[in-house]
Amino acid sequence: MSVAFRRESDEEHLEPKFELPIPPGPNLVTPRGFELIRARNEELEAKLESQMSEEERKSVLRDAKYWRQRLASAELAPPADGSEVALGTRVTFVRNGQTQTLDVVGHDESEPSANRVAFTAPLVRALMGAEIGDEVEFASDDEPILILAVTASSV
């Protein structure tokens, strides 16, 4: 039967709702990342205390399950000293003739538009352990990436 002849309340044609996937591997976080996870968890727990529709409650519960697990599994990464690219550092480098700066953060803290990139991202994995002056090969780049600066990140 065509969807045009169904009642709007028929749920069989709605998109299925899936659990939020938990990233594989350890849940390493910066102190900032840990606070973001804790705050998000508290926000959702408080929201579950309020009145809401059954559908909204299901959505909040789905999110809460994810954030509860992320809070429970969070491991603070060792403090970075800035001598090499690691979780919790800010790195400046030249790639394909362009200078870029990014902060290496945990998965849930990642925000590429703000130059905060997860330590699990392919580019960051290639840079991990590099020191100032190192040249790092990456994917199909014609030239190696040149590390200009590494500092312990304050963000």
TrEMBL record:
Name under which the protein is recorded: GreA/GreB family elongation factor
Region Disordered, residue ranges: 1-26
Native source organism of the sequence: Sphingomonas caseinilyticus
Biased composition (Basic and acidic residues): 1-18
Pfam families, sorted: GreA_GreB
Keywords: Elongation factor, Protein biosynthesis
SUPFAM superfamilies: FKBP-like
Keyword Protein biosynthesis annotated: yes
Domain of life of the organism encoding this protein: Bacteria
Transcription elongation factor GreA/GreB C-terminal domain residues: 83-142
GO molecular function: translation elongation factor activity
